[in-house]
Design goal:
Low-confidence stretches of chain A: 90-96, 468-474, 561-570
CATH architecture of chain B: 2-Layer Sandwich
CATH class of chain B: Alpha Beta
Mean pLDDT of chain B: 79
Helix content of chain B: 40-55%
Number of strands of chain B: 4
Oligomer: heterodimer
Number of domains of chain B: 1
Radius of gyration of chain B: 20 Å
Number of helices of chain B: 8
Distance between the termini of chain B: 40 Å
Strand order of the largest sheet of chain B: 1-4-2-3
CATH superfamily of chain B: Potassium Channel Kv1.1, Chain A
Number of strands of chain A: 21
Shape of chain A: flat
Low-confidence stretches of chain B: 1-16, 89-98
Largest interface: A-B, 46 and 40 residues
Largest sheet of chain A: 17 strands, mixed
Structural class of chain B: alpha+beta
CATH topology of chain B: Potassium Channel Kv1.1, Chain A
Order of helices and strands of chain B: EEEHHEHHHHHH
Chain lengths: 570, 173
């Protein structure tokens, strides 16, 4: 028996009923409407009514159809969860609202109902769409914790809304001239606030943070970000904070904090794990005021004059394993005492260094871009993985009035690089590198196993360390001298072995094929076993010539050098 | 409520390092799986606790097909022994969990299958899988117009004219 026959047996309406609708119901209705002897407006009104009824029938059928859609078989709370993901950007900015998600409320009745009933969807409070929108979001968010984002000037009623809902605000981001609002933030405690970010755009005067921010009561505050604001260190004491990020280059001009205030702040925030201080450290005395124990510190970033950085490092006690990122900039006010070299002994002490056993196993040296700087990155572990482990040390040292060679000598002696196993030299953004730099920096690194070089200058100079200019190669080879007698692997990138001018520059790079082959032959007499080549201008003939010398040559032909990037160092 | 039926000892292989469970799908397929693998499911864990009280072994009848159940078991097997942040309601507020590459590949299935998996994960109370599925479905419709969303998920506009133009709808975009 067919499905339709079964349905008719049970007296259920079937699709055949719909087929009969036209001849049995609609046609007579049309005939009736045509036969009416009334004015046209009256007939049109009747027809409009019929059309409305038919639309309603279609709407009801659409609802029935939607009920049978696979997406309708999942519970509303899951649908709300999907909308929730839709309303948030992934990855880098997981808590930033994404525009456009709101169109889910126009898809169908169930989706709209679900969205309106899911408070978490409305908890990203913004003011840029107008007061009515903000009030509607606050109402729909019911009592869930809020993310409040203020990016423009607020009207009094909008400021009032921020204050009224502070008790359930979890994240508060103020990136606008909100000085008036800031004064109001002193009266209310913030029981659930976990993140407070305030930043003023550089075009405006710095915002002045009040002394009694949040009435000194923010028991769950973990993340504190302050950019281009002026503050006193005592006003920031919230002992639950774990992440602190302050960028305040004009701080000293407005509210000169004392060294004691700064150190007391660090002492009173014992949960700090990640501290990033850019241009806001008061000048600390060279003699110890008192040691600050920061047992939970995992990362310390400091940007400032050398003397300030030395002051911080010398007052912090026991941060074993913490990653240090230091950027030495000469003070705008007074650079008489500033010398990048002064930082190195303090760094060495924090790394747990001793004269005979340095913990540093991997060192990277690169130029610092526009400023005349040297960037030093070092690790205490060797980890072969796609993700680079957190460095123990990252320093950007400004070389004002200081020859680079002098700094490298200081690095070698201060950081005791005798234990290095891996070194990376990138001359892509450095025009000053020479043979002497190799010799000076790595003079004591007798156990170096892997050298990674990037840039034409790095290659030319390394190959000359033992071979000298092409003409002198024979004599150096004969002597058997090698800067890296334990070297097993060398990785080479962004080097032009061919010597042809790919960029149309007036001075094409010198060919490095012969010095390279001579250097490889020499190293193979020691321990060299492997060469990695990537992003280089090189021909199969040159690679074959290398393979006659070195057991294992890996050439990644798939990776082509990016011409514009590579030109910098040539 | 799930249906629990008593089973003969011979149905379930003997106890090893991890006890074995018998899961019965809606298409009456019997699937034996180690308890450890399914411990990510709060629903299963609660059932097992109930078994211990009666000292009788049971099969757990589940209201979804063996095809879907096997996908869920594959997920649980992959993350066996791993701590996943999203499974800890105190540690991971919704929407803040990281995207895992393996999950993306695992959920590269057709739309209907994805919806069946999220429903099963919800039933079994596997929060991390629910989150991954919800994210995958959200990604399907991210950046799409209303019409495109309807097309992708097979739903129709069923608003009344009044609802389409109601004042409250103006505050929905």
């Amino acid at each position: 028996m067919s499905t339709q026959a079964v349905a008719e047996l049970h007296g259920e309406p079937t699709s055949s009923s719909v087929e009969k609708y036209w001849p049995t119901v609609l046609r007579p209705r049309l005939d009736y409407l045509s036969s009416l002897d009334v004015d046209d407006d009256r007939v049109r009104a009747l027809i409009d009514g019929d059309i409305g009824d038919i639309h309603e029938v279609i709407r009801v059928l659409n609802t029935c159809r939607n009920d049978r859609a696979p997406i309708s078989r999942i519970p509303s709370e899951l649908l709300g969860r999907i909308f929730h993901f839709l309303s948030r950007r992934e990855a880098l900015q997981p808590r930033t609202p994404e525009a456009g998600w709101i169109s889910v409320t126009h898809v169908c009745r169930r989706w709209r109902h679900t969205a309106l009933q899911y408070p978490g969807l409305w908890s990203n409070i913004i003011f840029s769409l107008g007061l009515r929108w903000t009030e509607e979001m606050l109402a729909r968010s019911k009592t869930v914790p809020l993310d409040v984002l203020v990016t423009g000037t607020l009207r009094p009623r909008e400021s009032q809304l921020v204050i009224e809902h502070l008790d359930r605000t979890e994240d508060l981001h103020l990136t606008a001239p909100v000085q008036t609002l800031l004064q109001d933030l002193t009266t209310e405690p913030v029981p659930v606030l976990t993140t407070f970010e305030i930043s003023s755009v550089p075009e405006y005067s710095p915002l002045m943070l009040p002394e009694d921010l949040f009435a000194h009561s923010a028991p769950r505050l973990q993340t504190l970000i302050i950019h281009n604001c002026v503050f006193s260190w005592p006003s920031l004491v919230f002992n639950s904070i774990t992440y602190l990020n302050i960028w305040s280059p004009l701080q000293a001009m407005y509210v000169p904090n004392t060294a004691e205030q700064f150190l007391d702040f660090l002492r009173d925030c014992p949960n700090l794990e990640d501290v990033r201080l850019y241009g806001c450290i008061p000048r600390l005395p060279l003699h110890h005021l008192h040691n600050i124990h920061m047992q939970r510190l995992k990362r310390l970033d400091v940007l400032g004059p050398a003397r300030s950085i030395v002051g911080v490092l010398d007052h912090l006690h026991a941060v074993p394993g913490a990653s240090l990122r230091l950027t030495v900039r000469f003070s705008m006010r007074d650079d008489r005492d500033d010398d990048s070299r002064a930082v190195i002994p303090s760094v060495s002490a924090h790394l747990g260094d001793s004269h005979h056993s340095s913990p540093l196993l991997v060192l990277s040296i690169a130029g610092g871009g526009a400023r005349r700087t040297v960037v030093v990155t070092a690790w205490t572990v060797i980890q072969a993985s796609e993700t680079v482990p957190t460095p123990a040390l990252h320093m950007e040292l400004e070389l004002r009035r200081l020859p680079a060679i002098d700094m490298l000598t200081h690095l070698r002696d201060g950081l005791h690089l005798g234990s290095l196993r891996v070194a990376s030299v990138d001359t892509t953004f450095n025009r000053d590198w020479s043979v002497l730099h190799w010799d000076v920096l790595f003079a004591h690194s007798m156990d170096m196993r892997h050298v990674i070089l990037s840039g034409q200058l790095a290659a030319e100079t390394l190959f000359e360390t033992s071979c000298g200019p092409v003409g002198a190669a024979q004599s150096n080879q004969a002597s058997g001298y090698s800067l890296f007698p334990s070297l097993v692997t060398i990785s080479i990138s962004r080097v032009n072995f061919i010597g042809e001018d790919h960029a149309g520059t007036s001075q094409p790079p010198a060919p490095v094929v012969q010095p390279a082959l001579a250097w490889l032959q020499l190293q193979c007499r020691h321990n060299l076993r492997k060469v990695n080549i990537s992003e280089c201008w090189i021909t199969p003939d040159i690679v074959d010539a290398m393979r006659e010398t070195v057991t294992d040559v890996v050439w990644d032909e798939q990776v082509e050098p990016i011409l514009s990037d590579s030109l910098e160092g040539w | 409520m799930p249906t629990i039926v008593s089973v003969d000892d011979s149905t379930v292989p003997g106890e090893g390092s991890s006890r074995l469970l018998l899961l019965v799908s809606s298409d009456n397929k019997h699937i034996v799986v180690e308890e450890d693998i399914m411990s990510r499911s709060r629903f299963i864990s609660k059932q097992v606790e109930g078994f211990e009280a009666t000292s009788q072994r049971h099969a757990i009848l589940l209201p979804f097909s063996s095809f879907v159940l096997n996908k869920v078991i594959e997920y649980c097997s992959h993350y066996r022994g791993y701590y996943l942040l999203e499974d800890d309601p105190d540690a991971a507020p919704p929407g803040r969990s990281p995207v895992r590459e393996w999950d993306q590949e695992f959920l590269d299935v057709d739309r209907n299958m994805l919806l069946r998996i999220i429903k099963a994960a919800h039933y079994l109370e596997i929060k991390s899988l629910v989150g991954s599925c919800a994210r995958a479905i959200a990604d399907m419709i991210r950046g799409k117009t209303t019409e495109e969303m309807r097309e992708i998920l097979g739903v129709e506009n069923d608003f009344t004219p009044e609802e389409e133009h109601s004042p409250s709808s103006k505050c929905t975009g």
